[in-house]
Design brief:
Strand order of the largest sheet: 1-2
Shape: elongated
Number of strands: 4
Distance between the termini: 62 Å
Order of helices and strands: EEHHEE
Structural class: alpha+beta
Oligomer: single chain
């Protein structure tokens, strides 16, 4: 924190002193300043909108892909002994979605 030393005591600068020093250093803002400020605010708004849309897309994708498996509601029973996926031929699976993807390799 900046302090101003006056004779034998230390005091904090007032808001008026700070704004006066900034105005003296930078001068008054021109049209270019406001144009750049508008561009920065617009880019920020677009990025927040993009993040929210990815969030909504992820929630929708999760709801669409959710498939509950309950044994009592199955139309047919599964055999007790299933072959492990490792006993089949090597497979490469790609799962791609709106919010990401994954690669799975079975040997």
């Amino acid at each position: 924190m900046a302090t101003i030393v006056r004779q034998d005591q230390i005091t904090r600068p007032t808001y008026h002193e700070i704004t006066r020093d900034i105005a003296a250093t930078l001068g008054s803002p021109s049209r270019t300043y406001y144009v750049l400020l508008g561009i920065v605010v617009a880019v920020f708004a677009v990025s927040v909108g993009a993040l929210l849309s990815f969030y909504v897309a992820g929630v929708v994708e999760a709801e669409v892909r959710f498939k509950p498996v309950i044994r009592k509601t199955r139309k047919r029973e599964l055999p007790d002994e299933l072959k492990a996926p490792q006993s089949q031929n090597p497979q490469i699976r790609f799962d791609l979605g709106l919010t990401g993807g994954r690669i799975r390799v079975d040997f």
